[in-house]
Amino acid sequence: MVPQTRPLNHHGHLLSQPQPQIHSGSHFSGHFQLSEPQTRTMSHVYTQAHAQAQAQSAHAHFQAHTQPVQLHSVNAGSTPSMSTPGTGNSKRPTQKPPSRSAGNSYTIATSPFKTMELTPAPRRKKVKLPEKQLPDKVAALLPESAIYTQLLEVEGRIDAALARKKNDIQESLKNPPRIQKTLRIYVFNTFENQNQSGSDQKNVESPSWSLKIIGRILEDGKDPVIAGAMQNYDSTYPKFSSFFKKITIYLDQSLYPDNHTILWEGARSPALQEGFEVKRKGDKEFTAVIRLDMNHTPEKFRLSPSLSDVLGIETDTRSRIMAALWHYVKANKLQNSSDPSFFTCDPGLRKVFGEEKVKFSMVTQKISQHLIPPQPINLQHRVKISGNSPVGTTCYDVMVDVPFPTEKQMSAFLENFEKHKDIDSCDELISAAVKKIHEHSRRRSFFLGFSQSPADFINNLISSQTKDLKIVAGDASHHAEKERHSNFYSQSWVEDAVIRYLNRKPATSEVPRGA
Fold first, then answer.
1. Could you read off the pLDDT of 106-162 as tens digits, one per residue?
2. Angle at the Cα of 223 (from 219 to 228), degrees rounded to 5?
3. Considering only CA atoms, which of 94, 70, 97 is closest in space to residue 84?
4. Which helix (H) or strand (E) is 468 found in, with range?
5. Which of 40-44, 185-189, 294-298 is the least confident region?
6. How confident is the model at residue 65 (pLDDT cuts 50, 70, 90)?
7. Dihedral, CA atoms, 28, 34, 40, 41, nearest 10 degrees?
8. Which helix (H) or strand (E) holds 455?
9. CATH number of the domain residue 309 falls in
10. Sequence-separated (6 or more) residues with CB below 8 Å from residue 144
11. Which residue in 73, 48, 69, 72 sits closest to 60, CA to CA?
């Protein structure tokens, strides 16, 4: 008999590894039995999912025959490769790029391969719009412009408020709030080709069974599939496999000696799944043990008995445990009045830390030895090969933390916050209008000054243009009238300036006459 595993519609693959078998598991308190109508509903849902999985498998099989790609199957300790038809067993030689010898700067030019360094594109800077503020002279001429100034002030306050909200949302998304929901886990099995007669065994497949593990978040304490409210089910809930770090299934070692332990690890399977299925060939009943290692986000710890007695907490996150400890110290007034960086240990804390007083900065280090990973959940399922299929009406309810429903809305708000096309276009129109107002204001001042005193205006204009011309030509520091007098060259800095000038001139070398 060859052991097989196959996925159920978006369900995860279970890796088989030899590990010690667990013969007994702790009794889980959250289990209960389904009624017959509920069992038939679950069977109908599974049948539809199984048909969809077969259709996807057929489509993938067709693509595998039409595209010559290599498939690699991973087994414990070996990695045999399987090639599709048309590729054969020949191995392609490994190609290496030509190496460049040290010191040869012309190898890149003659090499048929060119190395390219990819650098990140420079971040595009936002175009800085002109000033929106109106000139004071324009505001004095138009009293109605005070309304525009008030609107600018309101816009500034709104932009500041949005910037603060954006920062708050970004911080909350780094540590998203979570609420507790009930995850209902269904464990059942189906079977095929059982109870065959001797004459029929030659024409049909070998007897087999399939073990399924699926789960869904309950809405108001009801399963949306059984209640017929699947259209109202929140699709933003995490998938079933995201709630577990590792799932281990232990089969009967006497029936499956070579491959009795089946392991799935979330770290090795980045794709999230809605459930799992294990299929094996066999015609004997046995009890399977399922071990579920929960994946808490953020990570939770189980407190030691001494720390749990002090804080009254059994399992929680590290941050909440530290907050509870600080609240305990504050409520019992244990902080040292002379040195606030220390706190005095009461009899309960002395059992935890073993000291009379502890420094606050050392609490994180000392408390780590009292934080233990939470215990896994052990379930048992009797794999039956007779009676109604599917077999198993037992359900298990587990409390899990799911992201707050508003997280998706906050992410959408941040995405839309950067796409203010309408606001940007209005800002551009306002800036263009203000720019034109500035231009018209300068032109008005120009012609108004000319009309009041034409001669003085022209003289001032020529003087201003002369200064600008000297600055452009680089002669702004020259004073022609002063340089005409000999006293200008009798100043103390002239001698030093002449020496500096002569030292800057290049020395001319004498050329031999016979050359």
1. 333 333 444 434 444 455 444 444 467 777 777 777 778 888 888 888 888 888 887
2. 100
3. 70
4. helix 454-473
5. 40-44
6. very low
7. -80
8. helix 454-473
9. 1.10.245.10
10. none
11. 69
Are residues 17 and 263 in contact, defined by beta-carbon separation less than 8 angstroms?
yes
Q: Are residues 304 and 288 in the same domain?
A: no
Contact 42, 226 (CB under 8 A): yes
Residue 185 to residue 382: CA distance in whole angstroms: 16
Select from 211, 217, 214 the least CA-distant residue to 236: 217
Question: CB within 8 A of 444, min separation 6: which ones?
Answer: none
Same domain? 353 vs 231? no
pLDDT level of residue 40 (50, 70, 90 thresholds):
low
What is the average per-residue pLDDT within 346-372?
93
Return the residue matching tokens 């995860």: 12
Last residue of a domain, which of 345, 372, 399?
Answer: 372
Same domain for 223 and 242 = yes
103 found inside a domain: no
Residue type, 155: E
Give the rounded percent of residues in the chain with a pLDDT score beyond 90.
Answer: 27
Same domain, 182 and 284: yes
Per-residue tokens: 144: 């109605």
324 and 284 share a domain?
no
Q: Does residue 188 surpass a pLDDT of 80?
A: yes
Residue 429's pLDDT is what? 85
Q: How many domains does the chain have?
A: 3
Distance (Å, whole) CA 421 – CA 71: 47
Rounded alpha-carbon distances, angstroms, from residue 328 to 315, 349, 350, 354, 360: 17, 10, 14, 17, 13
CA distance 422 to 415: 15
d(CA 480, CA 269): 84
Distance CA 285, CA 209 (A): 10
Q: Are residues 215 and 339 in the same domain?
A: no
One-letter amino acid identity for 147? I
- Does residue 153 belong to any structural domain of this protein? no
Domain identity same for 244 and 380:
yes
162 close to 169: Cβ distance less than 8 angstroms:
no
Residue 166 lies in a domain: no
What is the residue-wise DSSP string for 79-118?
--EEE-TTT-SPPPPPP-PPP--TT-TTHHHH-SS-----
% of the chain at pLDDT higher than 70 = 64
Structural domain span for residue 304: 300-372
Split at pLDDT 50, 70, 90, the class of 378 is very high
181 C-beta neighbours (distance < 10 Å), count: 16
**Is 280 in the same domain as 315?**
no
- Mean pLDDT value across residues 12-40: 52
Q: What is the DSSP string of 381-422?
A: EEE--SSSSSB--EEEEEEEEEE-THHHHHHHHHHHHT--HH
**Among 298, 302, 348, CA closest to 325:** 348
